[in-house]
Amino acid sequence: MNWKRKARRGLALFGHAVGYDSLERPDGKRVRKLWFDPPDSVAIVARTSDELVLIEEYRPRLGKTMLSCPAGRIDPGESFEQAAERELREETGYEAEHVELLETYYPTAGMRKRRGVVFADALTPGTQHLEPGEFIEVRTVPVADAIETVRAGPICGWSLPPLLVAQEEGLL
């Protein structure tokens, strides 16, 4: 397909790139497509010997409390693995002796944002280091029940997709 970008307008807004592209479609018609590019992010599938470490957090935009994998944005200069170690420590207090990037993907075709799925094990418990305004409860669930437990509540992109990737890799 032969789409042509004729112009791009964008700006930084609250640390995110937002804007629109003026495009010419293959039939010659011009259209504008909005875009929003937040930073890349990471979801962590954190496993003790027989449990997964999940978090429970209220999501204001949805008006729901959701159970998910620990997750967060990748800071400039960080790898997916480094961000996973930091986010796991901040949100749960756990330190991982081993982390492994399992997959990267685009959670939606409308953004250039990538999401990484990192598996973390050999965990040592510690104290949460939440950012101001974060209110996160740590939950552990048996590995065998994790997917069913997550599916029982509202599902978000931080919960089921990372667990399915880990299951496919034989880690659950």
Which helices and strands, and how do they pair?
Layout: E1 4-13, E2 16-24, E3 30-37, E4 41-47, E5 51-59, E6 64-68, E7 71-73, H1 80-92, E8 95-105, E9 115-124, E10 136-142, H2 146-151, H3 160-168
Parallel strand pairs: 4-9
Antiparallel strand pairs: 1-2, 2-3, 4-5, 4-7, 5-6, 5-10, 8-9
Describe this entry's structure for a reader.
The longest helix is centred in the middle third of the chain and has 13 residues, at 80-92. Strands 4, 5, 6, 7, 8, 9 and 10 form a seven-stranded mixed sheet that branches. A three-stranded antiparallel sheet has the order 1-2-3, with no helix packed on it. A hairpin with a 3-residue loop joins strand 4 and strand 5 (51-59). The chain is built from three helices and ten strands, in the order βββββββαβββαα. The chain has helices spanning 80-92, 146-151, 160-168, and strands at 4-13, 16-24, 30-37, 41-47, 51-59, 64-68, 71-73, 95-105, 115-124, 136-142. The model has no long low-confidence stretch (mean pLDDT 93). It folds into two domains: 4-37, no CATH class; 41-168, Nucleoside Triphosphate Pyrophosphohydrolase, CATH 3.90.79. By secondary structure, the chain is an alpha+beta fold. The protein is elongated and about 60 Å long. The termini are far apart.
